[in-house]
Design a protein that fits this description.
Two copies of one chain form a homodimer. Chain A is built from nine helices and 13 strands. In chain A, strands 4-3-2-6-5-1-12-13 form an eight-stranded mixed sheet. Chain A has a four-stranded antiparallel sheet with strand order 8-9-10-11. In chain A, helix 1 packs antiparallel against helix 2 and helix 8 packs across helix 9. Chains A and B meet through strand 3, strand 4, helix 4, strand 7 and helix 7 of A and strand 3, strand 4, helix 4, strand 7 and helix 7 of B.
Chain lengths: ~300, ~300
């Protein structure tokens, strides 16, 4: 049997250790574990990497601990404004959506755009109209309400600052998954609620193919999380592919160079998850931590935060 | 004196020769010439590449023949929905805007986002709110009305098709500029009204840093035009940089490889303008034509369509 595997993340940066109570930590780990294993089972049954990453991300979107879907942060207007993207490494087709409201699973919308529109990227009201045509599930604002996100917004409004996911420390909420299936196909997906108290229709790297998400069977699949503005400027996800393709770097070397050198040089905090066409997994980060989990057909489930 | 230069484009693909009357052709050439020389004069006086590309693109946005700003196509709802981006090769800071209405000069909004926000990309109503805070000029719908664009929409609505810039043949309306200044700094900018009869908040490559626009003093500055969905999937602008940086390709070789091979292989029609840090200019296209003009401190003004 050909090696297969999957890795997921629930955002870079972490809560202060004193704020991460055993109960909270348990909830994060439970969400990461469920997301990972749901995707892994698809791969084990011979399913596609594309379906695995979509389903793993949907589990995280449906969980209220992560900044995507149900647990998305509040923007300045007290709304949840979400971005997502997905890419199929077999043919490099891709779908992306930015600034949508009330769509239960933005990653599913990205996949529908990829498979059922002539386009790669849709945004705002127009994207929601497409979601309705495709009969995707919408939820009211109440579904997206979480007390701790609301408290974060109040703190951010009080300080008149746009804030990262959590006010208490740098935490970049995003979720993502990358997978290699038994047919040798790679895929990647990313989804986020962005920044607490964000204004002006701000879009980060998560919905940008080549910045937050990229997959190519020739090289690797990547999903990023971090201070999106920096990831956008240096095309983090595509750059790792380019280093492998054009400079013959191994996945590990390319990841180290981009995350620990290029991003650090410009002050870009965050990390990413990556899997190559051989099933090697890397989860580099230059932030305090990265909520992550991984499993391959050869290795046991691993869940880590710091 | 150090060599400097600028190139601009007014979109890939061309009208059928029989439709391009001498009057129309004269108007296109006049617009291209004015745009180019306005930017060139800035460079000649020692101004920055960044200012030159912004001003050259503004001239094309203010001209009603090109699909950007004033001449932007109508979307399905009969509105003008515009995208733009700009990048400074000296420090790789960038600004981008998508799906804005009634902003007179989207490229100027992209530059304001780059220089006066914490962000790279803003979209929709939020981006317009930011434009108002920055006191940018807005115009009413009438300003953007052009009879031939309106006729294009009626034809597209009649055929129930989303269409490229012109219904009569494949024409991808976008405008852009790339420049090298006397200090050795590169910059690139792109602006578009997208596709006639477009729906669902469709976003192409023009506002995506790394896809439609990229600049890096180490390599080159690029502005693309074409069927955006294909340019998005293979990160055309960043890919040319990566080939130069990682495979030591010359500008010409990298441009040929990406436009005439990689894009052609996936069916992606269009072209781009490029200038490298030595002042070499390339304007490759795999479409019938590319509205373009160029001039360096060593060479005369050249304007070409086919």
């Amino acid at each position: 049997m050909k090696k297969f595997g999957i890795a997921i993340h629930g955002g870079a940066g972490v809560m202060r250790r004193k704020d991460l109570t055993p109960d909270k930590e348990k909830k994060y780990r439970e969400g990461l574990s469920r997301s990972l294993m749901t995707g892994y089972e698809i791969l084990e049954q011979g399913g596609s990497a594309l379906d695995a990453v979509e389903v793993s991300v949907r589990v995280l979107e449906d969980h209220d601990s992560f900044n995507a879907g149900r647990g998305a942060v509040f923007n300045h207007e007290g709304k949840h404004e979400m971005d997502a993207s997905i890419m199929d490494g077999a043919n490099q087709i891709a779908g992306a959506v930015c600034s949508v409201h009330n769509v239960r699973n933005p990653v599913l919308l990205a996949k529908e755009i990829m498979l059922h529109s002539e386009h790669v990227m849709l945004c705002g009201d127009g994207a929601e109209e497409f979601a309705r045509e495709r009969k995707l599930q919408f939820e009211d604002d109440e579904y997206f309400f979480t007390q701790h996100r609301f408290d974060q917004l109040q703190r951010a409004l009080g300080k008149k600052q746009m804030q990262l996911d959590d006010g208490s420390t740098k935490k970049f909420g995003t979720v993502g998954a990358v997978a290699l299936d038994q047919s040798g196909n790679l895929a990647a997906a990313t989804s986020t609620g962005g920044l607490t108290n964000k204004r002006f229709g701000r879009v980060g790297d998560s919905p940008i193919i080549g910045a937050g998400t990229y997959a190519n069977n020739q090289s690797c699949a990547i999903s990023c999380t971090g201070h999106g503005e920096y990831f956008l400027r240096i095309m983090v996800a595509y750059d790792i592919h380019a280093l492998m393709q054009y400079k013959n770097m191994k996945l590990k070397e390319a990841c180290e160079y981009v995350v620990m050198k290029k991003l650090v040089d410009i002050g870009g905090e965050g990390g990413l998850i990556a899997i190559d066409h051989l099933g090697n997994i890397e989860t580099p980060f230059n932030s305090d931590g990265l909520y992550r989990a991984k499993k391959t057909s050869d290795t046991e489930l691993e869940i880590d935060i710091y």
